[in-house]
TrEMBL record:
Family: Belongs to the UPF0749 family.
InterPro entries referenced in this protein's UniProt entry, alphabetically: DUF881 (IPR010273)
Record's protein name: DUF881 domain-containing protein
Coiled coil: 57-84
Keywords associated with the record: Coiled coil
Gene3D superfamilies in alphabetical order: Protein of unknown function DUF881 (3.30.70.1880)
PANTHER family found in the cross-reference section: UPF0749 PROTEIN RV1825, UPF0749 PROTEIN YLXX
Organism whose genome encodes this protein: Metabacillus endolithicus
């Protein structure tokens, strides 16, 4: 009987231990489940915030790209305006140079026209001297070829200049000059000279009219601005 009591006690002890262990295991499992749920909720919240931030960043990135395109368009517009202003200033300088408002210097050419040294007996002398038409032919060709400024015997020409022949002399803006007539032109000599020397061009026509023509390249030609009173009188 005593042995049965001992065995029964052992059974109860083991059963109690197993019950206690099972209870502790269940509590631990529930606690882990609770922690896992809390962690998941927190992770979900962080993930939601991250997604929200990413969406905001995408919107900001789109806005940045839009602003960059607007800045690019503005820069292109300013560049075009800058080029327009630059062209306007360049044109103004050319016009001021053309009318003689500013001094100018640079490379160019010099064209000298002289009366023929030989007049055959019985021929008309007027057919062997330089006339204003000859000067006009040279001057027009030089302007067409890109000359920036032109002078005759040091007298700078303007848009209002006048030239006419008066016997053996030529009057330029009220100033009389005898032959030879030295026409100076500022511009690219590699363009101006070929333009005059072209076959059948100005030089050939002048030679046919018995005018002696001399062409020369010059490294530096300087012309002073025209005085206001001279331009007004012209």
């Amino acid at each position: 009987m005593r042995g049965s009591y001992v065995i029964f006690s052992l059974i109860l002890l083991v059963a109690g231990f197993l019950f206690s262990y099972s209870y502790q295991l269940t509590r631990e499992s529930n606690r882990n489940q609770e922690i896992t749920t809390e962690q998941w909720d927190k992770e979900y919240e962080i993930r939601s915030q991250l997604i929200s931030k990413e969406e905001i960043n995408r919107d900001l990135q789109k806005e940045l790209f839009k602003k960059q395109e607007e800045v690019k368009e503005i820069e292109e517009s300013l560049k075009d305006q800058k080029q327009v202003y630059y062209n306007l200033v360049e044109d103004v300088e050319k016009y001021r140079m053309y009318v003689g408002d500013i001094a100018v210097q640079g490379k160019g050419i010099q064209v000298t026209l002289e009366d023929s040294s030989y007049v055959p007996e019985g021929e008309n002398v007027n057919n062997y001297i330089v006339h204003e038409s000859h000067l006009f032919s040279v001057i027009n060709e030089l302007y067409i070829s890109g000359a920036d400024a032109i002078s005759i015997n040091g007298q700078r020409l303007s848009s209002h200049s006048y030239i006419y022949c008066n016997g053996p002399v030529v009057t330029v803006d009220g100033n009389q000059f005898p032959a030879p007539f030295v026409i100076s032109a500022i511009g690219d000599p590699n363009v101006l000279l070929p333009a005059l020397n072209i076959t059948g061009g100005i030089v050939d026509q002048l030679s046919y009219d018995n005018v002696v023509v001399t062409l020369e390249k010059l490294e530096n030609i300087k012309m002073e601005p025209l005085l206001q009173e001279k331009k007004a009188s012209s």
